[in-house]
Design the sequence.
């Protein structure tokens, strides 16, 4: 018992470790325990215990200071007069609040959970501060100021991997102005715009002929199967609307940009070609990465392959890059007199130039322009990799025209199919305008300008579809100078607010999706109502049938957002996130 009790015991009162060897512990010497103990000094503890206590105090103070810093960073606002969305993290900002949800829902959560009565709020994405505006007056003021556009480094890397570093959306300052000027000059010629309308007509007629042939084949096959029955259902094809619009859009782009209607050949085959499928795959891959930028699968470098998605991405990108390089080399090898054949007016049968040819000529004119103010201004243009710039810009134009057109037309047709009165008005206006055009002069070529300008109601339908389903969900501006937001007037001025000035360098987000679905801009915002943009004039009076629909803001002084609306709305007019239905094409249609 004594050996167990005294072995390894400590006498804290004397400041020593007191130990005793088990061999010395016997019954005869137990009384002389303290005389036989071996005293081991622990002077190291005497020397270091003040420092250990000081280190503990410093650590506690550091933890308290760190906590206060985190709280201060989490409570910091991008602007002192604009409320901030709740849930800010000192490192991630509000990014974790929108991770894993659709982009439209994340915009709603960030821009409307803490916005004040004037639709203004702020939030952080990482360390980057953003200010969001929802009133159309604020958005109009922001979009008309001098700005630069900057993306987070991760987002910029995703865009560069698809479009290249010379994409028009990634260029800065004078290079951006140079490319923008070249693109505008390429789109300016009237002959090019007229040829584009002819390309649209040619491609849509090709699609109609292909659908008629497929319906005829379906009719013959169904008649042989149902020969024993007295009545058979009409033949039909069930095709997704989105796929049809993609085929038409790709063929129009191929004919307009490259002047080759057989390049993609989707409308004749009624399926996406390998090039068109590559466009589709790259767009899907980019949207997936932009919607979840921090997903570990998206962070894996695509240049190394690794995953099936990355390997498919590298194959599709190589296919498109080689295709564009081949198109550029073909035009560079064309004889100079053929590239300039449209400049002399003697040949009336000469074909108009395509967009790629006009873009290459615009770059040549910019570089060789005699109006350069100095030799230095033309030297940096000559040093640019012209072929790579044309390739990246053309790829950007292709994607911009492909996705935006497909989304707009698909949702327009979807909304028209959900609202029979709107469909009836569209068909009536189209029949009337086309009939009047043919009656004017049957032997004269249709004047596309007159027809498009007279389809007033149809333009209102497209604008309303763009309001509900904008192809671009958001845009941002990095201010180059201080900008004062317009004062709040009318019904929006619910609370007294001082003048708000946004400082230079501030990043302002214009959430197009949320702005166009906010009640401060559009009454009953989730309803599909083309009468926000047009109104009927003349009623049923036959004298006014030529212009029964007029644009609302053309005659009214009231803004287009304040069109009269009923307070009640049926549930069928409410727009949610729909699954686009398939279209059934019968022989009669």
Sequence:
């Amino acid at each position: 018992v004594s050996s167990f009790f005294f072995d390894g015991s400590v006498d804290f009162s004397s400041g020593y470790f007191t130990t005793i060897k088990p061999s010395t512990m016997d019954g005869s010497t137990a009384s002389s325990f303290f005389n036989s103990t071996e005293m081991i000094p622990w002077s190291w503890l005497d020397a270091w215990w003040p420092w250990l206590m000081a280190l503990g105090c410093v650590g506690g103070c550091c933890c308290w200071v760190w906590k206060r810093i985190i709280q201060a960073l989490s409570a910091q606002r991008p602007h002192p007069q604009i409320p901030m969305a709740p849930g800010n993290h000192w490192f991630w900002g509000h990014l974790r609040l929108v991770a894993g949800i659709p982009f439209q829902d994340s915009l709603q959560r960030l821009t409307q959970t803490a916005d004040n009565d004037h639709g203004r709020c702020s939030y952080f994405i990482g360390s980057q501060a953003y200010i969001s505006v929802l009133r159309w007056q604020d958005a109009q003021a922001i979009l008309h100021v001098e700005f630069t556009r900057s993306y987070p480094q991760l987002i910029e890397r995703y865009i560069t991997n698809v479009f290249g570093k010379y994409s028009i959306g990634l260029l800065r300052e004078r290079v951006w102005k140079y490319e923008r000027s070249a693109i505008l000059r390429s789109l300016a010629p009237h002959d090019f715009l007229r040829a584009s309308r002819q390309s649209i007509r040619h491609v849509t007629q090709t699609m109609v002929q292909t659908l008629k042939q497929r319906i005829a084949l379906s009719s013959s096959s169904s008649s042989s199967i149902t020969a024993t029955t007295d009545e058979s259902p009409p033949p039909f094809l069930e095709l997704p609307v989105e796929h049809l619009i993609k085929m038409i859009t790709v063929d129009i782009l191929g004919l307009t940009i490259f002047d080759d209607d057989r390049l993609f050949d989707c409308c004749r085959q009624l399926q996406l070609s390998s090039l068109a499928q590559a466009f589709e795959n790259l767009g899907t891959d980019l949207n997936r990465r932009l919607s979840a930028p921090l997903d570990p699968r998206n962070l894996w470098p695509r240049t190394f392959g690794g995953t099936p998605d990355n390997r498919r991405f590298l194959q599709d990108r190589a296919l498109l890059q080689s295709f564009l390089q081949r198109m550029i080399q073909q035009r560079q090898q064309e004889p100079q007199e053929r590239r300039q054949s449209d400049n002399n007016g003697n040949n009336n049968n000469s074909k108009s130039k395509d967009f790629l040819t006009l873009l290459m000529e615009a770059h040549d004119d910019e570089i060789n322009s005699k109006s350069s103010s100095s030799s230095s201004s033309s030297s940096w243009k000559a040093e640019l990799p012209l072929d790579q710039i044309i390739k990246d810009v053309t790829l950007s134009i292709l994607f911009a025209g492909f996705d935006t057109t497909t989304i707009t037309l698909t949702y327009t047709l979807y909304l028209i199919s959900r609202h029979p009165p709107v469909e009836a008005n569209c068909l009536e206006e189209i029949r009337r305008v086309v009939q009047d055009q043919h009656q004017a002069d049957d032997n004269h070529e249709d004047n596309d300008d007159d027809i498009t300008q007279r389809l007033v109601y149809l333009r209102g339908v497209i604008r309303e579809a763009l309001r509900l389903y904008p192809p671009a969900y958001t845009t941002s501006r990095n201010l180059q100078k201080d900008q004062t937001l317009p004062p709040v007037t009318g019904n929006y001025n619910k609370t007294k607010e001082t003048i708000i000035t946004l400082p230079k360098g501030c990043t302002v987000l214009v959430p197009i999706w949320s702005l166009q679905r906010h009640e401060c801009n559009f009454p009953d915002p989730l309803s599909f109502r083309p009468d926000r943009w047009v109104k009927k004039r003349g009623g049923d009076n036959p004298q006014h049938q030529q212009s029964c629909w007029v644009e609302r803001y053309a005659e009214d002084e009231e803004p287009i957002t304040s069109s009269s609306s009923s307070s009640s709305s049926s549930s069928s007019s409410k727009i949610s996130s729909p699954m686009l239905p398939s279209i059934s094409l019968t022989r009669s249609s």
In short: The two ends are 105 Å apart (CA to CA). The chain has 23 helices and 14 strands. Residues 1-25, 344-350, 554-589 have pLDDT under 50 and may be disordered.
